[in-house]
Every structure is written in structure tokens, then in C-alpha cells.
């Protein structure tokens, strides 16, 4: 026999559920309460992990309005992230990871929200590249680290590996902001290992939005202590996709795949350097991989050139086009020379070095011509960028090219195009080393450029 009376209420505001009446679920206050003069106590939060990624990332305001659930300081940090941090982190890309996905997920997943508050609070305290030495002992520092610890705690309650991967990117960011190389690499290693285990059964959303991020993050550890033995590669990727490029972000992802594989190859080639005591013979496998990467890079450039000729980039997209071409040229040079037993091999690539210099000059010009659209400007000279920009590419030219005029031009462009910090690369440090190397190798001294 069916139960008599009103059907049990499972949804609705807290007040209506206590009264056991049907709620119209109006927001922010339901009409059932307000029309009778009662106070609507709002709605209980959904359990962590109860949201699908479609719900998390559907169309809605980037950052929800600050509510009583947020402290004033926390609400301010979330707003600062939306207005300042997310656009700076996005750089030149069309990717919406920072400007939309992170911001929206922060309203649904506590671990994401706490991590975003930590990132925002730390970023705001950064000067022209570094945190103040007493930051961790300051009230702002304790606030940021407190939220970071809360994010770590919340993550242990999350069974969804997609959420774990998502927050892992944010944890890498927190550690990079604090210049903690080992901790950032450890988080990145953990994320890559998880991704390798879940990618076949993971959601399409994870592959579309998190895979490109982890491909790019898999590069920086090899410049700051990571080795082939202690840092895993991403498995089962389509390194040589022959389909036409669909967008600039698609072009970027395909090049990033090749760069990620190329950097691992370059580190594997360290065995063949001239200062290696055993002086091993270069294996046929290594030669085949070198040739394969060179062919794939050239094919990428052909496809990219066709795409940009048939889909003329708008002026605000010019910076990413120039950056991708520079990254392609640096990758080509380095992969071609990495197994040579002397540095003389770089001399054969002077024309490519000069092309990189010319592309940087176009980027400087693009910076000036886009100044009338500040929302779309190249984010150069910002205090921090999460990912690699112009700096490491121009630094490569400064250190490896032996043509004085090209090196000096690259040094000038590094000073004008680079953010103060790009990932762990520091512009002041890079500029100073480049200046010193040029003076020493060319036997000159100069006061200014």
C-alpha cells in the first residue's frame, strides 16, 4: 500500500525541508518562505564529487557572487584571481583553462577553491619576480599556506581522479610561485603518473583540457633537476597527427607534443656529450629518433603554415603564432645538434637563429601595435607567467648562437618581451648570464645595449 500523505521532500531549501513542505527552489531565497514572512535558510551544499564535469563547467558567471560562505579575505582573493591572475596565466593562448575552467570549478569543488585562493594570495605578494623573504611569516603568507593545506586535505576526500589531476595542476602552480622546484616537480610527476593510469578510461573532458596542460608541464622538470629515470613520460600519445590543424590551440598542442618528446630525446643524448668518459658510440635507435623528430617538426611547420595562410590570425593572435614558430626553430636546432661532440654544430644553424631574432622583432612590433587593446595585449613584463614564453627561447639564442649581432638583438628582446618570471625561468638571472657570456666569448665589454 502506498504511503499516505505528502511525498518525502528530498530537495529544496533547508527551511522547507524542516517544515516538510514542497519548496519552489527559488534562489537566492525561495518564494515559499518569503511569501509567508519566514526566513529562507538557503540550500545545503551538494556533496563533494557529486557534480559531473558538464555541471562544473557549463555556461555560468566566471566567479559566482561572493556569499556569506566566503570570508572577506577569501572573497577578495577569488575576485583578484578572476580579474588579474587568470588573464595573466592564460598568456597568449585561446585556452580557457585559467579564465573559465578553474574559476568555475572553484565554485563547486572545495579543493579547487582553496587552491585558487592560495594561488591568488601568493601571486599578489610577488614583486618583480620573487616573494618577499618573510612572506611565509606574514599574515598574508599564513593565509595562503593555510588554504593550500586545506586544499591538500580536501583532495584526500576526492575519489574522482579527474578532480585530482585538475587540482594537481594548481598545486604545481602554488609551488612554482614559491620557487619550490623539487615540490613542483614532485606534483607534476604525480600528475603524469595518474594520467598514464587513467587516460584510457578517463573522460573526454580530461583528455581535451588536462592533457595539453600536462604535456606542457612535462617539459620544465628536465631543466630543473628532472631526469629520464625519475620523471615519467606521457604514454600512448599520437605524436604524428596528420589531420589538418583545427585551431591555434590545436597547433600549439601538436607542437607541444613534439617538444615534450624532443626534450626527453635531448636528455637521453647527454650520454654522448664530449665530457662523457666512456665516449659511447651513438646508437642507430638514437639516430632514427633524431631523424624522426626532425621530419615530424617539419611536417608540423608545413601544416601550421597552411593553416595560418587559410585562417588569417587576428592581430591579437599574432603573438602566439610568432611564439610557436620560435619554439619550432629552437626545437629543430637543438635536436639536430644535441649529439654533436662540440658546440661548433650550432654554427650551421645561423640562419635559423636569425629567423628567431626576426620573429622576436615582429613580436616587439606586435606589442606596440596592440597597445590600443590592453585586454588583448601580449602579457610581457608581467611579474609571472605559469608557462614558458619567450624567455627560454631567446636565452637559447643568446647562449648557443656565436653571431654577435644576433646575440645582442636576442638579449635586447629578452629584456623587452619576457615576463619577470616564466615558470622557474627568471629574466634578471637570464639577462645577466647572457650579458656575461657574450662579453667573455667575444672579448668585449659594454655598458649598455
Shape estimate: elongated
Question: What is the averaged pLDDT score?
Answer: 84
Q: Note the run of SSEs as H and E.
A: HHHHHHHHHHHHHHHHEEH
Number of helical stretches of at least 4 residues: 17
- The N- and C-terminal alpha carbons lie at a distance of 91 Å
Q: How would a crystallographer describe the biggest sheet? A: 2 strands, antiparallel
Q: Helical residue percent?
A: 55-70%
Beta-strand share of residues: under 5%
Strand order of the largest sheet: 1-2
Helix-and-strand structural type: mainly alpha
Number of E-state strands: 2
Q: Compute the gyration radius: what is it?
A: 25 Å
Low-confidence stretches: 1-7, 59-69, 371-380
Please describe the structure with a list of short key phrases separated by commas or semicolons.
449 residues; mainly alpha; CD2-Gal4; two-stranded antiparallel sheet; 17 helices; 2 strands; 57% helix; elongated; disordered N terminus
Amino acid at each position: 500500500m502506498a504511503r499516505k500523505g505528502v511525498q518525502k521532500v528530498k530537495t529544496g531549501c533547508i527551511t522547507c525541508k524542516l517544515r516538510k513542505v514542497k519548496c519552489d527552489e527559488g534562489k537566492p531565497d525561495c518564494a515559499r518562505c518569503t511569501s509567508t514572512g519566514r526566513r529562507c535558510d538557503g540550500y545545503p551544499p551538494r556533496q563533494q564529487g557529486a557534480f559531473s564535469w558538464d555541471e562544473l563547467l557549463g555556461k555560468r558567471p566566471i566567479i559566482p557572487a561572493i556569499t556569506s560562505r566566503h570570508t572577506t579575505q577569501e572573497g577578495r582573493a577569488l575576485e583578484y584571481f578572476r580579474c588579474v591572475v587568470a588573464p595573466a596565466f592564460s598568456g597568449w593562448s585561446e585556452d580557457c583553462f585559467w579564465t573559465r575552467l578553474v574559476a568555475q570549478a572553484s565554485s563547486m569543488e572545495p579543493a579547487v577553491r582553496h587552491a585558487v585562493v592560495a594561488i591568488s594570495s601568493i601571486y599578489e605578494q610577488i614583486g618583480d619576480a620573487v616573494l618577499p623573504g618573510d612572506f611565509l611569516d606574514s599574515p598574508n603568507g599564513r593565509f595562503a599556506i593555510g588554504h593550500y593545506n586545506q586544499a591538500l586535505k580536501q583532495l584526500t576526500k576526492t575519489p574522482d581522479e579527474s578532480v585530482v589531476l585538475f587540482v594537481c595542476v594548481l598545486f604545481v602552480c602554488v609551488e612554482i610561485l614559491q620557487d619550490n622546484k623539487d615540490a613542483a616537480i614532485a606534483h607534476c610527476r604525480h600528475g603524469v603518473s595518474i594520467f598514464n593510469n587513467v587516460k584510457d578510461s578517463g573522460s573526454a573532458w580530461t583528455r581535451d583540457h588536462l592533457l595539453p596542460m600536462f604535456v606542457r608541464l612535462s617539459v620544465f622538470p628536465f631543466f630543473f633537476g628532472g631526469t629520464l629515470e625519475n620523471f615519467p613520460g606521457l604514454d600512448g600519445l599520437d605524436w604524428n597527427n596528420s589531420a589538418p590543424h583545427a585551431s591555434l590551440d590545436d597547433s600549439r598542442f601538436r607542437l607541444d607534443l613534439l617538444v615534450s618528446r624532443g626534450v626527453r630525446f635531448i636528455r637521453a643524448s647527454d650520454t654522448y656529450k664530449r665530457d662523457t668518459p666512456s665516449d659511447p658510440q651513438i646508437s642507430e635507435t638514437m639516430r632514427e629518433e633524431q631523424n624522426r623528430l626532425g621530419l615530424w617538426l617539419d611536417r608540423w611547420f608545413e601544416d601550421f603554415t597552411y593553416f595560418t595562410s587559410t585562417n588569417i590570425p587576428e592581430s591579437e593572435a599574432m603573438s602566439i603564432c610568432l611564439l610557436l614558430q620560435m619554439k619550432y626553430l629552437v626545437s629543430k636546432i637543438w635536436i639536430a645538434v644535441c649529439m654533436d661532440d662540440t658546440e661548433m654544430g650550432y654554427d650551421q644553424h645561423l640562419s635559423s637563429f636569425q629567423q628567431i631574432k626576426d620573429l622576436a622583432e615582429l613580436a616587439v612590433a606586435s606589442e606596440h601595435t596592440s597597445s590600443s587593446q590592453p585586454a588583448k595585449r601580449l602579457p610581457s613584463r608581467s611579474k609571472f607567467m605559469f608557462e614558458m614564453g619567450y624567455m627560454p627561447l631567446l636565452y637559447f639564442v643568446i647562449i648557443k648562437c656565436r653571431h654577435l649581432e644576433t646575440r645582442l638583438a636576442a638579449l635586447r628582446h629578452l629584456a623587452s618581451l619576457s615576463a619577470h618570471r616564466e615558470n622557474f625561468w627568471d629574466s634578471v638571472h637570464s639577462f645577466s648570464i647572457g650579458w656575461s657570456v657574450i662579453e667573455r666569448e667575444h672579448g668585449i665589454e659594454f655598458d649598455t645595449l
